[in-house]
Write a structure and sequence with these properties.
80% of the residues lie in helices and 0% in strands. By secondary structure, the chain is mostly helical. α2 packs parallel to α9, α2 packs antiparallel against α10 and α2 runs parallel beside α17. The longest helix has 40 residues. The chain is globular.
Length: 361
């Protein structure tokens, strides 16, 4: 490990300990607020791991020049997936706190949930989650070079298909099912796109300090970030227009909840700070090549991604928002702290391996 990586590793572990203790205190003091808060923090963490793996598989299938400088960061993001698997344990222990379909009294009152019981039940839910993580961790090991030596476009193509399919079901299980009577065929793609945007923004932040980039490389990566911002914006607007214009009660109530009680201001903030400002900043070649503008846009996108996940999860639960925000901050500190340590460890391990190969080569 380099000095910076050792510092990241130590700070990550310290943050995880502090955040874990604060999250435990939140659970003891306010269990009702703990569940939406923890789910929010966990889904934000998932974006780094799953988004990094998806982008790495895209790079593996294309083997494009833009992927060369960011492969170590994408591999390191993918290496945090085991952390998310461990952090999934509270959802195994208390599924009825996170998901309404896990409460028999609620299922008994809903004819629709009774029809979904063969899919939305604890045992099948846990089995699917285990399958997702096994698949993702194996693919992360493969593309990260731990289980092979040479690149393979075939691996990238078939791996990408597998991740997109499993990620679609995971988005249904872990986000849409918190409101199990809601329907949307477009939401899983929107969620996966958000994960990719989040992971790429993190890459832009971690790439600059340790590895200075020339202007043309920054320009290429800036174009990719702009593309992801535009795709995320397009899917958000399309999803909203289709559901709202359809005016079907089983669909539209999802946006109704998020358009009142102050949540509409978060939606406006996402439109301005996650779509319009990044688009304008990255539209010009100067903005894409700037060593200051690109990281600033990436940081803004990351912050808005946390806001988006909160906007998706928290309105589905009853109760005060402020305790949820406080516990979610602690959960983010714990989960992302562990991910930071895993990220730094993987970067250090990769660098050590390459140094040894160079010495022997």
């Amino acid at each position: 490990m380099t000095r910076t990586q050792r510092r990241m590793f130590g700070l990550g572990l310290a943050a995880a300990v502090i955040g874990g203790l604060a999250s435990a205190a939140g659970w003891l003091m306010d269990p009702a607020s703990f569940f939406p808060a923890y789910l929010t923090a966990w889904l934000v963490g998932l974006g780094f791991g799953l988004g990094g793996l998806t982008l790495r598989l895209v790079d593996e299938s294309l083997f494009a020049h833009w992927g060369h400088p960011i492969r170590p960061m994408l591999n390191a993001s993918s290496a945090t997936l085991p952390v998310l698997a461990v952090a999934f344990v509270p959802m195994v222990l208390w599924p009825d706190g996170f998901f309404a379909w896990s409460r028999p009294e609620i299922v008994a009152e809903s004819d629709l949930l009774q029809k979904k019981i063969h899919y939305l039940n604890d045992l099948f839910f846990f089995a699917r989650a285990a399958g997702y993580f096994v698949l993702w961790v194996v693919l992360a090991l493969l593309v990260g070079g731990r289980m092979r030596r040479r690149g393979s476009k075939t691996l990238g193509a078939f791996g990408l298909i597998a991740v997109l399919l499993s990620g679609t079901f995971a988005a249904v299980d872990w986000t849409m099912s918190i409101e199990p009577e809601w329907f949307s065929t477009g939401f899983p793609l929107l969620f996966l796109t958000g994960c990719c945007l989040q992971a790429f923004a993190l890459t832009m932040l971690t790439l600059g300090p340790g590895r200075p980039l020339d202007k043309e490389t920054r320009n290429s990566l800036g174009k990719l970030l702009l593309t992801l911002v535009m795709l995320w914006t397009y899917l958000q607007l399309t999803h909203y227009i289709i559901i709202w214009s359809g005016n079907i009660s089983t669909d539209a109530f999802w946006y109704q909840k998020r358009s009142t009680g102050g949540w509409q201001w978060l939606a406006l903030a996402m439109l301005v700070f996650a779509s319009i400002l990044p688009f304008l900043a990255l539209l010009s070649r100067f903005g894409r090549q700037s060593a200051r503008v690109l990281p600033a846009v990436a940081a803004l996108v990351l912050a808005m991604r946390a806001v988006e996940v909160s906007w998706i999860v928290v309105p589905a639960f009853d109760g005060d928002v402020l305790p949820v925000v406080a516990i979610a901050a602690a959960g983010l500190l714990a989960i992302c702290g562990l991910q930071c340590a895993a990220f730094a460890w993987d970067l250090g391990r990769t660098g050590s391996t390459r140094a040894k190969e160079a010495d022997h080569g």
